[in-house]
Amino acid sequence: MTTELVVKATSLVKRFEGKEVIKDCNMNVRKGTIYGFLGANGSGKTTVFKMLLGLLIPSAGEIEILGNRSSENRDKILKSIGSIIETPVFYEHLSAKENLELHLSYMGVVNPYIENTLELVGLNDTENLPVSKFSLGMRQRLGIARAIIHNPKLLILDEPINGLDPLGIREMRELFLHLVKNRNMTIVISSHILSEIEHIADNIGVIVNGRIVEEVSLSSIKDQFPEGLEDFFFNIMSGNGGKVNA
Ligand SMILES: Nc1ncnc2c1ncn2[C@@H]1O[C@H](COP(=O)(O)OP(=O)(O)OP(=O)(O)O)[C@@H](O)[C@H]1O
Ligand SMILES: [Mg+2]
Predict the structure, then answer these.
(1) Which domain, by its residues, includes 45?
(2) Considering the domain boundaries, does residue 126 fall inside one?
(3) Total Cβ atoms within 10 A of residue 187
């Protein structure tokens, strides 16, 4: 494979009951980068993520994660990915730490640094509090902790900052940048908060009605849309195409 691609999806198609929801999608995510995946409600972001994770089987097309074809290496790939997809589900009667311990044993991974990870996401003072008593933002933080606790190479984050307060959003932004810089992770992140994506992404993919219509660096977007990502995005959404020379 092209060695530096962590995600390479080619001609992906997904049909539900005959209806084509994902249409001929190509996605390329380079190692050590943050890829912001943008699209309106219902455009297909979560469906693409689920296919990358092997939770949904593509109707056609090919996915390679870290050089491994997903159709052949599901278990190996799952171990190398951490994810938050939609609303994370936890064992409600257990604490944050116990939830992470269970996840690690399920993944077959040993990580003695659970406390450090809880600290990294700002949950170090929850002690024995059961998750049922967590606020929305605390759940989101635990979701991120669970996504990173087994030291994955690729993080797939589907709207991970939903429910976080402004300070939490900033903390997560710093955490994501830290993970890429110091823990050699690659991140694919979707969010409707364009300003947040603009803060952290290296590259942007835009999906419209199940088709990835743009894949381009943030810097070239900024060259051509000096007002920033929002202008670029609305330009595409309004049907102008918004083509940027990569
Ligand atoms: N299991 C399913 N069966 C049938 N249709 C589905 C299924 N899952 C998703 N869809 C359809 O696929 C399309 C894309 O949905 P998806 O959840 O991927 O969008 P999204 O971009 O993640 O949206 P949002 O921003 O609201 O999270 C929608 O039209 C949705 O109704
Ligand atoms: Mg979604």
Answers:
(1) 5-89+154-240
(2) no
(3) 25
Q: Is the pTM of this model over 0.85?
A: yes
- Number of domains making up the chain: 1
Determine the Cα–Cα distance for residues 1 and 213; give it in Å rounded to an integer: 23
Which of ligand 1's atoms lies nearest the C-alpha of 47?
18
* In a domain? residue 85: yes
CATH code at position 181: 3.40.50.300
The whole-number pLDDT of residue 110 equals 84
Q: Which residues pair with 63 in a beta bridge?
A: 9
Q: What is the pLDDT of residues 114-136, one digit of tens each?
A: 999 999 999 989 989 999 999 98
What's the 176 CA to ligand 2 centre distance in angstroms? 20
Q: Is residue 146 part of a domain?
A: no
For residue 3, pLDDT over 60 is answered with no
Is residue 68 in some structural domain? yes
Enter the tokens of residue 157.
């984050």
- Is the distance from the beta carbon of residue 45 to the nearest atom of ligand 1 less than 6 Å? yes
Q: How far apart are CA 224 and CA 244, in angstroms?
A: 7
pLDDT in tens, 49-80: 999 999 999 999 999 999 999 888 888 888 89
